[in-house]
Design goal:
CATH superfamily of the largest domain: Glycerate kinase, domain 2
CATH class of the largest domain: Alpha Beta
Radius of gyration: 22 Å
Structural class: alpha/beta
CATH architecture of the largest domain: Alpha-Beta Complex
Mean pLDDT: 90
Oligomer: single chain
Helix content: 25-40%
Strand content: 15-25%
Distance between the termini: 63 Å
Number of strands: 16
Number of domains: 2
């Protein structure tokens, strides 16, 4: 295993002051939450009226969550400079989840070389938080963005590098590993990752199958004797950005195969292979992946790790919100502002906006989205939102959105701030 390189990441904030006004040193004001759960349990109404908690996901393809926090914060402070604002960049288990944990809890970023989705070696990073927890983003080793569009084919991509990241975290002494599984290029059921961790998958002739999507349907027997022994007795948690089943309608191949480069025939073949793999897993281990919600996340990596490495599956956004103690933070604010790139019917299923609204049940929550698809009133009701704002109201094509997204978001946030202050003055 290559030697780890380490880059220190300083925690944001001092642990003493969550909500900060215009004169705070950091324009972004992303603040640490580790020691805040028991502080300021009683907040006077007048002080609470000035507090805004900003907790958005990234807008995929345009802005990360930290930049969105900065823009929302500046817009609200322009409308009312006396506001006290706390920014918590969020993620749902997909891209940005490692950064969200580092921003909230502090830690170090580790750099290693692993095999990418097409087996070429590349540099990847993961985080070790201050309590020794490792946070691994599978997209660092098997992400869709690592494969050129002309080369995308989930029959021949692999999660092998994800297993190498897990082994490196074990080498660093981590006894708790969080695996964030969004943005994958793979539909290999975790074959690559589990092969790297020591499991052997063999066909009817006793030969090892290729550790990639095309190997799934060939698996006839699973040999677990070589599984990395250090995985026993430690905590392995997969943070899922979807609750998809392993196979069938809504599963890893039928729902996500096309965006990973598969054509109709390959999608059908991969779905059949996942079904066959699930039956072999049930026969050899007793674990029924066909009924496990989230097993299809990251092309079945989540299911494979659950069945064969003892991992637990969790909604990424729910896990992060619980770890942050988000409920208590929201109770101390007059308004919670969240958002994501596209707000639609899928937002109800485990995404950041839904999780934030659920954990801020006692505080009004609004969403500022890049784009809204569907009826706003229905979405607001389904998600428990007090308001929905859209940055791309003009429905510009994506090429234009990339140029104007920051200005559009700023304008939408100012509208939201004015509406909030007007509602507050009406209640006075």
């Amino acid at each position: 295993m290559p030697e780890i390189g380490s880059t220190s990441v300083r925690p944001r904030g001092t642990g003493k002051r969550l909500f900060a006004g215009r004169n705070s040193k950091s324009k972004n004001e992303v603040l640490e939450v580790r020691d805040q759960r028991k502080e300021e349990q009683f907040v006077p109404d007048e002080q609470k009226k000035k507090r805004i908690l900003i907790a958005p996901d990234s807008f995929k393809g345009t802005m990360d969550a930290r930049e969105i926090c900065r823009i929302l914060r500046e817009a609200f402070l322009e409308v009312e400079p006396s506001l006290e604002i706390c920014c918590l960049p969020m993620a749902d288990g997909g891209e940005g989840t490692v950064d969200a944990f580092l921003n909230a809890f502090g830690g170090t970023q580790e750099h290693i070389r692993v095999h990418g989705p097409l087996f070429a070696c590349r540099e990847a990073t993961f985080a070790i938080l201050r309590d020794g927890t490792a946070v691994v983003e599978m997209a660092q080793a098997a992400g869709l963005t690592l494969v050129a569009e002309t080369s995308r084919n989930p029959l021949y991509t692999s999660t092998y590098g994800v297993g190498e990241l897990i082994l490196t975290a074990l080498d660093a002494g981590c006894r708790r590993i969080l695996i964030c599984v969004g943005g994958s290029a793979t539909v290999d059921g975790g074959l690559g990752c589990l092969t790297a961790l020591g499991i052997r998958f063999v066909n009817r002739q006793g030969e090892e199958v290729p550790p990639m999507g095309c190997g799934l349907g060939q698996v006839d027997h699973i040999l677990t004797d070589g599984l990395e022994k250090r995985l026993r007795g430690m905590e392995l948690i997969v943070l899922c950005d979807v609750d998809s089943p392993l196979h069938g309608a809504g599963g890893a191949a039928l729902a996500f195969g096309r965006q990973k480069g598969a054509d109709d025939g390959q999608i059908r073949a991969l779905d059949a292979a996942l079904r066959s793999f699930s039956e072999v897993v049930r026969r050899d281990t007793g674990c029924d992946l066909s009924t496990l919600a989230g097993a299809g996340a990251a092309g079945g990596l989540a299911g494979g790790l659950a069945a064969l490495a003892g991992a637990k599956l969790s909604s990424g956004s729910e896990f992060l919100l619980r770890e942050m103690g988000f409920d208590a933070l929201a109770q101390r604010a007059a308004l919670v502002v969240t958002g994501e790139g596209q707000l639609d019917s899928q937002s109800v299923r485990g995404k950041v906006v839904a999780g934030v609204a659920r954990h801020a049940a006692q505080t009004p929550v609004i969403a500022v989205a890049g784009q809204v698809e569907g009826d706003r009133a229905w979405l607001a009701g389904a998600l428990g939102l007090a308001g929905v704002y859209e940055a791309n109201e003009a429905r510009k094509p994506f090429a234009e959105v990339q140029k104007s997204c920051r200005e559009d978001l700023y304008r939408a946030a100012r509208r939201a701030a004015r509406d909030f202050l007007q509602a507050q003055s009406g209640q006075s």
